Amino acid sequence: MDKAHRHEELEEEAAKPFGLMGYFLTPGELMHACEKLKNAGYKDFDAQTPFPVHGLEKAMGLPPSKMPWIVLACGATGLLSAIALTAFVSLDYPLVISGKPAFSYQAYIPVMFELTVLFSAFGAFFGMWGINRLPMFYHPSMKHPSFPRATDDAFFVTVEAKDPKYDASKTRKLLEELGAREIVEVTE
Amino acid sequence: MTTAALQEDTPGKRAPLVLGHRDFNAVTETVAGIVEKKTTPSWLVLLGLAVSVLLILLGSLGKLVAEGLGIWGLNNTVFWAWDITGFVFWIGIGHAGTLISAILFLFRQKWRTSINRAAEAMTIFAVMSAAIYPVFHVGRVWFAYWLFPIPNQMSMWPNFKSPLLWDVFAISTYATVSILFWYVGLVPDLATLRDRATTKVRSIVLGIFSLGWRGSHRNWLNYEKTYLILAGLSTPLVLSVHTIVSFDFAVSIMPGWHTTIFPPYFVAGAIFSGFAMVVSLMVLARKAYGLEGLITIKHLENMNKIILLTGTMVGYAYAIEYFIAWYGGNEYERFAFINRAFGPYKWAYWTMWSCNVFSPQLFWFKRIRTSIPAMFVISIFVNIGMWFERFVIIVTSLHRDYIPSSWTYFRPSLFDISTFLGSFGLFFTLFLLFLRFLPAVAISEVKGVMPQADPHAGHDDHGHDAHDDHHEEASAKADESEDEGDEGEEASDDAEKDEEESRG
Amino acid sequence: MSQAAAMTAGRATGEKSKADDARKLPKDVGDTLTKAGMGLAVLGVVAAGAGYAMDAKRFAASYLIGFLFVATIALGGLFFVLVQHLARAGWSVAARRQMEWLAGLLPAVAVLSIPIFLWAHDLYHHWMGPQAATDPILQKKAGYLNPSFFYGRSAFYVVVWVALGLYFTRTSRAQDESGDAKLTEKMQAASAPAMILFALTTTFAAFDWVMSLDPHWYSTIFGVYVFAGCATSSLSVLALITVQLQQRGYFRKISTVEHRHDIGKLLFGFIVFFAYIGFSQFLLIWYADIPEETVWYHHRWDDAGWAKVSLAIFFGHFVIPFLLLLSRHAKRHAVGLSVGAVIMLVMHYVDLYWLVMPTFDHHFHFSVVDICGLLGPLGIAAFLVARQAAQGPLYPLRDPRLAETVKVDNP
């Protein structure tokens, strides 16, 4: 009984609409559609494309990426860590090498550089997946029957139901006007 | 429209980067097809060959660990020879991959998209082949972790003033960043393969490795920025790696090693050898997998031009080094260079010059740089020459050092040769596995440089053609692009506003 | 260096600067610019004369620095033109003409080099003077470091530069008239051998004119070091000219914020390259600690004054401009980029000063004569750039890749 109840609840949740999806066959049409959606006041919409379409973020009105700041912070951490590491190591157990002072910063610059780059790269790599909320192995947009084409040759647009302007019929009409194909309401 | 006419890159009209693929799906089919079709017998034969050479490596290393470094031909005078030569050789090979993926990306060289994936894979495998040498040269490999600053029972730290320790940091950073960069590039293509998967297992495995990538533009935005940042990080990184490798020699006071041009000279040489390896591999791979439409003659010609450029830079370094050895007036330095050119190893020195400086000069001729057999032969010559360059630097400087009584002539032992040969087994095994199981061409990036990928395609389909009045055309275009950029806002000439919009 | 001139010009024009995509500067602006340049040239020559009268010996060294300042900028301009043809670049068409103006200084560089040879016995007295005959080290290199070979080589360098400078600027101008795409192909074909000539002449000029000031000392990377200075200084001048022209609205349709960004990126790249080359040379010499090599750094570090100059180069030529131009916003911003460029130009002078002067002056002191030595060549160069700017088109009018350059975008 408990099980059945949970199942029911899941079904109910699953029935909740996530948004309307349709696709275009050229990046130009998609760009045009995104501009129109933006101008119509939609905020929660997204495009799924097989490659990054040049300039689409402007058409969608997306803010610039935050990645540089994450990387900058990580790079600074790397540099400071390297300075701390080399300073600690050379003072904790001083080795006299070719008569140079214990803390010969000149000789530590290569290591400082490498750790700065390493930390920055980690910041870029993990920061990017973090910001993008990936890995995410399930996403409602994957329910569109033609979704596999999003990584091949189709340019999808998804208007999400959580957008205040979302209206199942009006939004569908707008997408139809824009020439989207196979418009489907996908569920959560 | 014949392909020959299409490939000509005349001023004002860029030759297309992709030939014979009319739409995006065709690119997917070509590249994904390689991974999805059945294993071919020829691939199995090649893999068998590579694995048998790999077994030679494993055997040689097993013997080395069991008996010690004495099995190599090293002696008191020549304490570094084939081992470090092999290390520098492989590290150098790897540099072209990073150059193609990062530096050419920063320079907006769109032709890189067809070759960057394979070149990056080559980088990673080359670094792995290189890493064998320092790791096993420490003798007791199970203590190799002493190279890292990990607290140990002796409460000692590694010597941070040693260039060999800088190498540890440089190589491990380089390997890590190369793998991250490569994987970031792979994710969208793995998603493509996932969406084409026909079996449950493939779909689950690819699903995991593609991290649920769905091509959302909100993700692409961060993705592209990250790609740019990783390219920006990899560029100084790749320079630093071979620079630090050159420091291994140049910080010493060994004549022939201590010369200030070593850092840029090593970097140029590394890129040179790496491009030669990419040309060798790509000539074979494009033929074997029918990638001629993606990796065109134009791609190969561009790489040959880079080989000519870097080969000439290497020649410059040889000449300047020689000149300054004389100009400096230091007896030891002068001797080291005379000994290189006319001493017992003169055969190696002149092999180096012939392969590295003279043979690429043939690429001045367009017929030769667009001829597949010619470029294949020259690229092999360059690889041989670059191995000899490191051998000449290392062995000829050491074998006649400051004390004439310890002068000697180095001869490699069987295990020197088998270890080096075996390292090719490791490299080719990994490369063949890569060709078979991963998309060898960056699918999403190639699509992005096709003419129909431009969202404004159609407006100016013939925009690159030569017109009578370029100026009129140019200003018309500027108007157009400005309007597009500022749509929805008042058309404004104010550059500051433009900046606000696109900053980040 | 023509910034002052360009600013005067801008003030003079006022509203007229709205002529958005002028192919040429309006005549009145051009005249004002030429006049301002002429004024600077006269001022420079007068200052140079005064400097020479004050202290002829010091002036020779100061003039060498000023001459090198102009020569490196002109060579950097030539390098840029060559490398863009070599790479068949499209984006840089909008920036190429300004670099051609700089490469167009090379004939003047040839003339300006004459005093160096007149004063060679003062400047290079370490190896030209009588004491060289008894110096065992110098005896070994007398086959290279002897006056007649030195003059012959120097003549060869300047002849090559004049030839390359004239060929590439004239062919580009010829294309303005004819619109012949074949000319682009010709320049592309010529750029590869020209690059080899450029690399060799620049390297050996650096060895002969700068490194031989201290004839015992040697460094294989020295030519590359001087080349790095050519690149940063010429790109800085390019950035300043481009920003000035854009701000006055002259070729905004051709050269946009995207070109500013690209120039900024290249400048940033070469700042890092310069630091890399400078650090490589320093680290290797510092680490090996061989007296015959470290002496060069001792001259630049042991004296408290020179140590400060060394630190100033580290911070001013690398750290500060690096941090500034790291920002995308700064590279795209007219003021941000200009500040970076001005810092780099000032520091380029300091760097050349640091290369040359410690040989003559073991204790750092800056003299008014040094300013005179700079103003002479600089004033003449400013005049010549202003005149080229006033007389010719502002960009390669009919370059076949003009359509590409206006489409440049930095996502």
Characteristic terms for this protein:
heterotrimer; A: about 190 residues; alpha+beta; 6 helices; about 15% strand; B: about 500 residues; mainly alpha; Formate dehydrogenase/DMSO reductase fold; about 70% helix; about 0% strand; disordered N terminus; disordered C terminus
- Beta-strand fraction estimate of chain C: under 5%
Shape type of chain B: globular
What does the average pLDDT of chain C come to? 91
User: Could you say which overall geometry of chain C the principal axes of the C-alpha atoms support?
Assistant: globular
Main sheet specs of chain B: none
Question: How far from one another are the termini of chain B?
Answer: 43 Å
Order of helices and strands of chain B: HHHHHHHHHHHHHHHHHH
Rg of chain B, rounded, reads 25 Å
Number of domains of chain B: 1
Helix/strand class of chain B: mainly alpha
**N-to-C SSE series of chain C?**
HHHHHHHHHHHHHHHHHHH
- The share of residues in extended strands of chain B comes to under 5%
Summarize the structure in words:
The complex is a heterotrimer of chains A (188), B (504) and C (411). By secondary structure, chain A is of the alpha+beta class. In chain A, 51% of the residues lie in helices and 13% in strands. Chain A has six helices and four strands. Chain A has a four-stranded antiparallel beta sheet with strand order 2-3-1-4, covered by helices on one side. In chain A, 40% of the residues are buried. The model of chain A has no long low-confidence stretch (mean pLDDT 89). Chain B is globular and about 70 Å long. Chain B starts with a helix and ends with a helix. Chain B has a single domain, classed as Formate dehydrogenase/DMSO reductase domain (Formate dehydrogenase/DMSO reductase fold, Up-down Bundle), CATH 1.20.1630. By secondary structure, chain B is mainly α. Chain B is built from 18 helices and no strands. In chain B, α3 packs antiparallel against α15. Helix content of chain B is 68%, strand content 0%. Chain C is 77% helix and 0% strand. Chain C has 19 helices and no strands. In chain C, α4 crosses α10 and α5 packs antiparallel against α10. The longest helix of chain C has 32 residues. Chain C is globular, with a radius of gyration of 21 Å. Chain C starts with a helix and ends in a 5-residue tail after the last helix. The chains are: A alpha+beta (188), B mainly alpha (504), C mainly alpha (411). Chains in contact: A-B, A-C, B-C. Chains A and C meet through α5 of A and α13 of C.
